[in-house]
Amino acid sequence: MRSDVLRLPPGPVDLTTFDAASAAGFPEDKDQGKEALAGLGAELAELQEQLFAQRGADHARSVLLVLQGMDTSGKGGVLKHTVGLVDPQGVRITAFKAPTDEEKKHDFLWRIKKALPGPGKIGAFDRSHYEDVLIVRVHEWADADEIERRYGAINDFEADLVESDVKVVKCFLHITADTQKERLLARLDDPEKYWKFNPGDIDERSRWAQYREAYQIALERTNTEVAPWYLIPSDRKWLRNLAIGVLLRDTLRGMGLRWPEADFDIDEQRRRLETEAPIA
Amino acid sequence: MRSDVLRLPPGPVDLTTFDAASAAGFPEDKDQGKEALAGLGAELAELQEQLFAQRGADHARSVLLVLQGMDTSGKGGVLKHTVGLVDPQGVRITAFKAPTDEEKKHDFLWRIKKALPGPGKIGAFDRSHYEDVLIVRVHEWADADEIERRYGAINDFEADLVESDVKVVKCFLHITADTQKERLLARLDDPEKYWKFNPGDIDERSRWAQYREAYQIALERTNTEVAPWYLIPSDRKWLRNLAIGVLLRDTLRGMGLRWPEADFDIDEQRRRLETEAPIA
Questions:
Q1: End-to-end CA distance of chain A
Q2: Among A149, A127, A113, which residue's Cα sits nearest to residue A221?
């Protein structure tokens, strides 16, 4: 399994041409897929710990995982099942809801910058600054010039992040409208899922084609060399979780992480312990 | 396995009388202990999700897990292996280091209050406000009157938390000096662990008896009815992780959590989905 098959090619985007249920080189079978994700756990955990271990270094690296997708596409599921495979001490998760009154007073990137991962951490955004060119575009909550400005502002912002040692990994969780319908109905059928259901989700669903268009434009305009988009087939939950697991693994592998050298004299410290006064 | 056996009895505390390697009713065997922890996973995850699901309710509940203990006692291990069993979206972890210059300008509880878990969340503190009566007492970084004042301030603060629907669970991770020595030496023997070693830890170790005394006083003075202390035998890592897992499970069980009722008309929402206009 290789994550480069998930990378969105440059140029205009037509989401209807992308398969939401499979990816080349990935399993077709649920049990195999779940096993493959579990099999990633140990390596992911080690790579994450190496990332964390170098947090005190000059130019310490970090990772920012951006999750975008329609309601029920499974942003929360990825956080639980894939990001949940690594030590939670090394993870900073932020879910972006409708902006507060204070947040509205600032530029749209203000609250985003406050939520960035510190050195050595994996940050994960459940929705992000992309909402400001998605739901905002669909509802015309900002004028066309402002939205136009934002694509460039996002590209500049992400280029700055990459420059400052934050690896940016952007995932679009791609589902079909039929899958969303199934998942919304499933929430209505299960009293353990009522809390996840919001009648407003059906209102947004009625704007499906407008959201698709807004996504297509945003994906095309912000699919940069330094911070490209990945299309995650998300009609099957286990494939979605696995695909992002592989992408995260490949990202961390590509960073050339190593265990830091000792910055003290190992033998001297061992001697101190072995010759210490009795402790009672 | 019941967590009430871990509860510190009221009154003066003599840590030398507590077993750091076993607990009544808990397994004696490592494989059994690891299996038991894995067996807690599903229930812990469900309880945590129920806690999260009620976050929008009036008087939404949350949990604050406070982890204290000498270096190498395994605060990080508990976060990874026990807290790591639940969905990281529902968890807020804060590690308290030496206070920054800004933090020093404020009362010792200022930075603590900023790190409290939001409604529906499990907060976890790796070190906490207790450092201000522990390391600060051992090093005499504050005068005796100020430290005396802090025990009461801590009790008032924690009583306020409990009053405002935050369940406070305080764990002292109890290890022997011999175990600490073993673990420090292990860090010196393994290049994958050098980054966890700090020569200053050996300096602090030389004050073991003073730390024990500071802990004994702090535990006695802050072992309140509403926010009691639990003594976690931590000489064996798997027992420590399991004990805190059981404590967390019992805490969540005791909160009487249930899945929230639907706050919308289920049939109406189902009808909306089933009669919608075609989506393309």
A1: 55
A2: A149
**Residue B134 tokens, joined:** 């522990």
Show residues of chain A in contact with B270, CB under 8 Å.
185, 188
Tokens 């992400």, located at residue: A158
Q: Please tell me whether residue B18 adopts helix, strand or coil conformation.
A: coil
Strand ranges in chain B using DSSP code E only, listed in sequence order: 62-69, 91-95, 122-126, 166-174, 229-233
- The amino acid at B266: I
**Contact (Cβ atoms closer than 8 angstroms) between residue A239 and residue A22:** yes
A51, A82, A194, A207: best mutation site toward chain B, by most B Cβ within 10 Å?
Answer: A194
Closest residue in B to A176 (Cα–Cα)? B280
Q: State which amino acid sits at residue B273.
A: L
What mean pLDDT is predicted for residues A253-270?
97
Least Cα separation, residue A119 to chain B (angstroms): 14
Minimal C-alpha gap between A225 and chain B (Å): 30
Sorted by sequence, the CB contacts under 8 Å of residue B115 that are 6+ apart come out as B92, B94, B96, B123, B125
* Helix A208-221 vs helix A144-163: crossing angle, to nearest 10: 50
Q: Which amino acid is at B62?
A: S
Distances (CA, A) of A7 to A126, A225, A230, B92, B275: 20, 11, 4, 32, 36
Q: Which of A89, A264, A279 sits opposite B80 (nearest CB)?
A: A89
Interface pTM, i.e. ipTM: 0.95
Are B90 and B193 spatial neighbours (Cβ–Cβ below 8 Å)? no
**Cβ contacts of A83 on chain B, cutoff 8 Å:** 88
Rg of chain A over CA atoms, in angstroms?
21
Tell me whether residues B89 and A126 touch, CB distance under 8 A. Answer: yes
pLDDT tens digit string along A4-36?
Answer: 999 999 999 999 999 999 999 999 999 999 999
For residue B278, the chain A residues in CB contact (below 8 A) are none
Q: Do B270 and A205 touch (CB under 8 A)?
A: no
- pTM for the model: 0.97
**Average pLDDT per consecutive 10 residues, chain B (280 residues; last block may be shorter):** 97 97 97 97 97 95 98 98 98 97 97 98 98 97 97 98 98 98 98 97 97 98 98 98 98 97 97 92
